[in-house]
Write a structure and sequence with these properties.
mainly beta, 3 helices, globular
Length: about 210
C-alpha cells in the first residue's frame, strides 16, 4: 500500500496583474493596542466589515464581500477619524481585496507567511455585529489548516461574527497570519469553527509584495 494521497489540491492564483510592491513594517512590538490602532472599520454600500493597514503608503487588506461592487469605501480608524479608500484590486474566488487611502493614522501590521502551527495562540480584531463594536479583540488557538472547495484556510476557535470579516488574525508577536472570512453557525449560533485566509494567499491572489521598511 502506498502513501496516503490528499485529493483536495489547493487552487493556485493565476497572476494576470502586474506585481504591486509596497513598503511594509519592519516588525511588531507585540503590543495589542498597536494592532488595534492599525485595524479599521470599512463602510461600503453593502454594509460594514473590517480591514487592516499593511503598508506605510496606505494600502489595506479586507474581504471582497466587504467592499462588494463599491469603487470607493469609507475607512474609520480606531480613534474615530475617517478617510476615503479606493478599491484597487479584488479576487472574488479567494474573497480578498486591496484598498488604497491617502490618509494613514496607524502603523502597518507586519505579515508572517511562515508555517502555521496547530495550537498556537492567535487573536482576531474587528467590528463584530455593529459599527459601535469596532476595536473588539478576541483570542483562541489555531485549530487546524484546511482545504475547502480548493482554497486554503486557517481554522480557529477565536470568536468572530459578521462584521469581523476582513480583519486580521494575529499571532502572539503581533504579526498577521490570516484574514477573517467566515464562521460556521447553526440556528444563528456560533460554533467556534471559524475560517481565515492565509496571509500568503492574500498576497499571492492580489499580486502584491510587501517589502520590509529599511
Amino acid at each position: 500500500m502506498g502513501a496516503p494521497t490528499d485529493l483536495k489540491v489547493a487552487i493556485e492564483p493565476i497572476i494576470d496583474l502586474p506585481l504591486l510592491t509596497m513598503v511594509g513594517s519592519r516588525g511588531s512590538d507585540g503590543n495589542i493596542q498597536t494592532a488595534v490602532g492599525s485595524t479599521v472599520l470599512i463602510l461600503s454600500g453593502s454594509g460594514h466589515g473590517s480591514g487592516f493597514l499593511i503598508s506605510s503608503d496606505g494600502y489595506f487588506l479586507t474581504n471582497e464581500h466587504v467592499v462588494g461592487q463599491a469603487k470607493y469605501v469609507k475607512i474609520r480608524w480606531a480613534d474615530g477619524s475617517e478617510s476615503l479608500g479606493e478599491v484597487l484590486r479584488v479576487n472574488k474566488g479567494r474573497d480578498i481585496a486591496l484598498i488604497k487611502s491617502g490618509s494613514v493614522a496607524g502603523l502597518p501590521l507586519p505579515l508572517n507567511v511562515g508555517k502555521i502551527e496547530v495550537g498556537q495562540q492567535v487573536r482576531a480584531i474587528g467590528a463584530p455585529l455593529d459599527e459601535e463594536f469596532q476595536n473588539t479583540v478576541t483570542s483562541g488557538i489555531v485549530s487546524a489548516t484546511r482545504i475547502i472547495d480548493g482554497y486554503r484556510y486557517i481554522q480557529s476557535d477565536v470568536s468572530v461574527v459578521p462584521g469581523n470579516s476582513g480583519g486580521p488574525l494575529i499571532n502572539s508577536r503581533g504579526e498577521v497570519i490570516g484574514v477573517t472570512v467566515a464562521g460556521m453557525r447553526i440556528n444563528d449560533a456560533p460554533q467556534g469553527v471559524n475560517f481565515f485566509i492565509p496571509i500568503s494567499d492574500a498576497k499571492n491572489f492580489l499580486a502584491i509584495d510587501v517589502a520590509e521598511k529599511e
